[in-house]
Amino acid sequence: MISRLWRFLVPALLLAAAPLARSASLPPDLASLLGPRDSLLVTDAAGRRLISWNADRPRIPASVLKLLTAHVALTHLGPGYRFTTDFFQDEEGCLYARGHGDPLLVSEVLADLARDLAPRLAPVSELVVDGSDFARPLTIPGVSDSANPYDAPNGALCANFNTVSVRRCAAGRYVSAEPQTPLLPFARALLKQRPPAGGRLVLTHNGGQAALYAGHLLAHFLAEAGQPVAGTVRRGMVPPEVPPVLVFASPFPLAEVVARMLEHSNNFIANQLLIAAGAKVHGLPGTLEKGVRLACDHARRNLGWENFQLVEGSGIARQNRVTAADLDRLLAAFAPHRHLLPSHGRARYKTGTLSGIQTRAGYIEGPSGALYRFVVLINTPGRRADPVLAALRQRLP
Length: 397
Known about the structure:
By secondary structure, this protein is of the alpha+beta class. It has two domains: about 15-75 and about 275-395, DD-peptidase/beta-lactamase superfamily (Beta-lactamase); about 85-250, D-tyrosyl-trna(Tyr) Deacylase, Chain: A, CATH 3.50.80.20. It has helices at about 1-15, 30, 65-75, 105-115, 185-195, 210-225, 255-265, 265-280, 290-305, 325-335, 385-395, and strands spanning about 40-45, 50-55, 85-90, 95-100, 125-130, 165-170, 175, 200, 235, 245-250, 345, 345-355, 355-365, 370-380. A six-stranded antiparallel beta sheet has the order 2-1-14-13-12-11, with helices on both faces. The chain has a five-stranded mixed beta sheet with strand order 9-5-4-3-10, with helices on one face. The longest helix is centred in the middle third of the chain and has 16 residues, at about 210-225. Residues about 1-25 have low confidence and may be disordered.
């Protein structure tokens, strides 16, 4: 009898936009998909709760936390903000490159940068890379010193997400897996010390590997542009008296950086954005602590978050805790930027996955054209988020 009643009652409640107030009232088809450590919340455009299950209990959010990082960056840096990399040259020909955390300083950008920079330079005696805008070491909870690409470290001057993509040729030697990126002698030497995982060599901050690789890659493209570096590539800081040569602005506005982060769920980009935003608000050098402090203040003051814990900005750390209700408040604020989220038919949402954790948060357009916000936080091992989302689609008017 109860099951038959729900079959008629729930659609009527949804159409009337009345909340299904308590977890005990969850329809049987949804209740069978959720475990004791899970949360579910569906709201309409006015913020009225249509379906609610443990919505005020903190859960591990995994990568849906990137929605908060995106909102922090868009708010405090601005959608049109562009990261810069600054160049200086002294009278002896020493070229200095100072990074400010650009997360998309990839080979194609470095090649364009070199073509822009080369004609402005006198003969280059050596290249000094300056990553002092971000403090070292930068330890991100949940990120280990492993060979996995998702463990790539953050820094103020980094190239290609601090990874080198490689494959083995027919002769068994490592070659570049990207036509736009040469396999430099610097990277070949590192491959002898540490084999790649998943086809990528992860650069570390040990001995300044990450910044030095960016410098060697820049030197390669400068040589291609007709301005070779005669001497070494080394680490250092820009002396205050050295005149500037070029402030190179990224071709990607922040809105596009955010879209790429959300599409590929890139942990490196997420924490670069968090640290850079924290540095803008709280001053240099950029640190994770400043970024997390900014995110927490933003969540409380601008979003009304109440019961949460943040330790980094990508969602890789299992210490992060967020409620479905707070994520719904974030989705309400993020709605003007929802086009930056990956599209899944009538839905746009962010996914999250850790061992035993599956999460989804975003927007669904119902068959009638009405827009709904939803949060699915699966923290019960063995349960899955997508069947819950599929069931929700069937219930929306």
